Automatic annotation (TrEMBL):
PANTHER family: AFLATOXIN B1 ALDEHYDE REDUCTASE (PTHR43625), ALDO-KETO REDUCTASE YAKC [NADP(+)] (PTHR43625:SF40). It comes from the Bacteria. Keywords: Oxidoreductase. Pfam families: Aldo_ket_red. Residues 19-311 form the NADP-dependent oxidoreductase domain. InterPro entries: Aldo-Keto_reductase, NAD(P)_OxRdtase_dom_sf, NADP_OxRdtase_dom. This is Aldo/keto reductase.
Length: 334
């Protein structure tokens, strides 16, 4: 067992920390090896990971099917797995993006398809991937609450929404957690969003804890990004990527003093920001998973935390966390 456990907010499930984010196994980060992806899910299960995060639009359903098949080949695994699903993103056959749909009828339609693809009778945590600006969040959350009442969903989550939206959602039904980007390079939630969820008893599942690979300690500035959405990410553009990797090298010095890797320190730092925060790691291979899970054995002292912040101060990242058109979809950035 190489994981620890935390509870998502006052009303959510107890899950492994870290959890495993599956997106890169199907989409957006270039080609993935399906056999290795499945083996990585199996290795996560064997290591005690229980939280598996997916989205119905990752590979247009492929990611859910991959998770279903991986769980089916390990008898009893579904009973121990907490499946978190994001919904609402609209795609086209070429992989394009066409906004978000949070209408109540759409919520129930998306859920029906996810339940079938996942081969399960319930989704443990169900959340809109982004706020649909044309639909009140109360309507979207109300529809999920009806799915909870019917037994199709266990808990309600949110994703990338700001403090006002969080309060409005929580006025309708209990919210287990907010999924949002949080890392040494993305600390925007600390100002208003994190205090709000803590006031309301809502947990945080933090994605992007390695800033899409920048904080992995393995990234090279000249890496090819063909077929990879990071090709349009500001932090990976020439000029910015070199500045960001210089921060990583400063963090590497701290990591080496701990006998740890850069990735392990970055993951441990997120976990150290509060017992109400569960990091999600996007490992696509067993090697990267093993490295990430070892972060649970790393204890950061106050001196370590000071040194880490000195290496990567808040707001030190060069470039925004998404390209401008994608930033416009983030209620959390308004």
């Amino acid at each position: 067992m190489t994981t620890s456990f935390r509870t998502l907010g006052k009303t959510g499930p107890t899950v492994s920390s870290p959890g495993l984010g599956l997106m890169g196994m199907s989409d957006l980060y270039g080609p993935a090896d399906e056999a290795e992806s499945t083996a990585t899910v199996h290795a996560a299960l064997e290591a005690g990971v229980t939280l598996f995060d997916t989205g119905d639009f990752y590979g247009m359903g492929h990611n859910e099917l991959l998770l279903r098949d991986a769980l089916r080949t390990r008898p009893g695994s579904r009973d121990n797995a907490v499946i978190s699903v994001k919904f609402g993103a609209l795609r086209d056959p070429d992989g394009g993006w066409w906004g978000y749909d949070g209408r109540p009828a759409a919520v129930k339609n998306f859920a029906a398809y996810s339940l079938r693809r996942l081969g399960t009778d319930h989704i443990d945590v169900y959340r809109p991937a982004r706020l649909d600006p044309s639909v009140p969040i109360e309507d979207t959350v109300g529809a999920i609450a009806e799915l909870v009442e019917a037994g199709h969903v266990r808990h309600i989550g949110l994703s990338e929404v700001g403090a006002e939206t969080i309060r409005r959602a929580a006025s309708v039904a209990p919210i287990a957690d907010l999924q949002i980007e949080y890392s040494l390079l993305s600390r925007g939630i600390e100002a208003e969003i994190l205090p709000t969820v803590r006031e309301l008893g809502i947990g945080v599942t933090a994605y992007g804890v390695l800033s899409r690979g920048l904080l992995s300690g393995h990234w090279q500035a000249d890496r090819s990004l063909t077929g990879d959405f990071r090709a349009i990410s500001p932090r990976f553009q020439a000029g910015n990527v070199e500045r960001n990797l210089a921060l990583v090298e400063a963090l590497r010095t701290v990591a080496q003093s701990k006998g740890a890797t850069v990735a392990q320190v970055a993951i441990a730092w997120v976990a150290a920001q509060g017992e109400d925060i569960v990091p999600l790691v996007g490992a696509r291979t067993r090697t990267r998973l093993t490295e990430a899970l070892a972060a649970t054995t790393l204890t950061l002292t106050e001196a370590d935390l000071t040194a880490i912040t000195a290496a990567i101060p808040a707001d030190a990242a060069a470039g925004s966390r998404y390209a401008t058109p994608l930033m416009a979809d983030l209620d959390s950035e308004r």
